[in-house]
Amino acid sequence: MRAARAHLEGEEIIGYVGSYPVFKGVGEGDAAYYLAQYSLAPVIVDWRPNHRVALGDFSLSAGEPPPKPIPGLQIWTNLGEGAVLYHRDHRP
Amino acid sequence: MIAGILLGLALAWAVGFAAVRACGRQTHGGRAAGLLAVSAALGAGLGATSCLAFLWLVIAGELNRGLLVAEVVFGVFLALCAKRISAAGPAGSAGETGTGGSFSARERTVAVWLTVAWMAAAGAHAWFGIKSPHGGGYDPWVTWNLRARFLFRGGEDWQRGFSEVLNWSHPDYPLLLPVSVARLWTCAGGESMLAPALVASLLFAATVAALMAGLALTRGREQAMLGGIAALATTFFVTHGASQFADVPLAFFILATLVHLALHDHAPGLGKPHLMLAGLMAGCAAWTKNEGLLFVGAAISGRALVTVKRLGLRPAARQLAPFFAGLLPVLAVVVLFKAFIPPPNDLIAGQSPGATLARLLDPSRHLTVLRWFGERIVLFDNGGVVHIVPVLAACFLICGCRADAFRRSETQTCALVLGLMLGGFALVYVCTPHDLLWHLETSLDRLIVQLWPSAVFLFFSVVRTPGEIERGEGRDVFGRRH
Questions:
Q1: Is residue B465 packed enough to be buried (19+ CB in 10 Å), middle (13-18) or exposed (0-12)?
Q2: Predicted confidence (pLDDT) at residue B220 exceeds the cutoff of 90
Q3: Chain A residues closer than 8 Å to B169 by CB
Q4: Whose CB among B76, B210, B277, B282 lies 3.0–4.6 Å from B39's, allowing a Cys bridge?
Q5: How far apart are CA B31 and CA B21, in angstroms?
Q6: Inter-chain residue contact A34 with B138, CB threshold 8 Å
Q7: For B96, phi and psi rounded to 5 degrees?
């Protein structure tokens, strides 16, 4: 997440997509989302992906997970260990 | 970085001492009065400096070291006020009961057990600090330390931490703890998880210290040590305090309020200082957690009911005036925060006249809440070696209570305020828009721990001391006088 923080300097709010859905309760997907928000503060991490930039957090998936495709977003940076940054306007 | 954190804590403590002294001369002499002043100063210091830091954020736009200069100026101002007050006349005495002289053989035994209990609690806090530096469970890092990070890392964008997107992290919760932690990081020039761990452990220690000091000043040294052992033997209270939850800091402010009210009643000649300090501590409770706002209402109405019944309307109003003088400065900051910064509270936002009325008129909800309250209070601390409530109930049956226990205004105030708090909690549960069983399951134990130190204070204020049992004073549980 430290690498993600460096990339996100200047961003106010980003989206989020994880290995499991986020219910804002105490499930596995929720814990991963809370941890992402805790690590990336003061950037606001929305639990929905629909922002200009979104964090893909697949660290809970077994092995080295392939980044999930998200409609309308393209992979910006693969940070490794299941963490990916997506960007709406990015042209690789 | 550690030096910066310690310096920040020392500065808060110094401001707190000045604030406590500026409330007027309290009891003097004796280790118990000193212990109470030290613990009250920590609470008042964290309360005052966090209020100042929040106002600094609003006015200056970000936390920076200029805040420390403002704190020093504020502390010097309070110290000058305190000096002027102390020059005005000598301090009174709360009439310490059995706090001097050498220890008897029985007291030495109790002191050994108390030392063991303190060491075990210190070990638990050190272990938790190493094992879970960001806090145990969800709340400490998902709510309090997350908010502290937004305030510290956010700079001029510190208000981002109150975004509606973060509603799951309760951005409407008051800020004493997160601002205190962010302030210590500002002093240190960087983030260290030592800051929240130290704040949590110091407020835990201050809670037990205030409990013991209050009992020593009103019931004697031996009763104070027994009260300390009972608190430290409550495993959930110790571990919860070490886990950086805000419930134990709130428990401290609730207890400190009730102890200062009791000291005022115990030695009414002392005048206003204890009432003013009680108001200040109640204000800090409201600045710690939303339940603190409920406590402010319970403390004012409980105190008013007792004093109006005993003294009449006008003297009761005169007694409440210094309480409000201590309360209002902190409450003004809470109102400023609540009015302008966070999104609405989830429990209030989920209410509508029709739905709330339907919940209130549903008898099954009342019965469920009553059943849970009964079970959880009796089985409180179910992770401990024994259930502490049945143990204390057995002690009460065996030892009996002091002769005038329930006629004393300090006992009546404490019992009434705690009763009103329990009633308020029950009403919140009945009206909750969340699933009732989930809400009870996830929060009731934490609410009980907020009242636990005050309940221990009330218990040992009422139950006969070993000395009274020996001398045959008081009455047993069947009402027979000795």
A1: buried
A2: yes
A3: 34, 37
A4: B210
A5: 17
A6: yes
A7: -55, 140
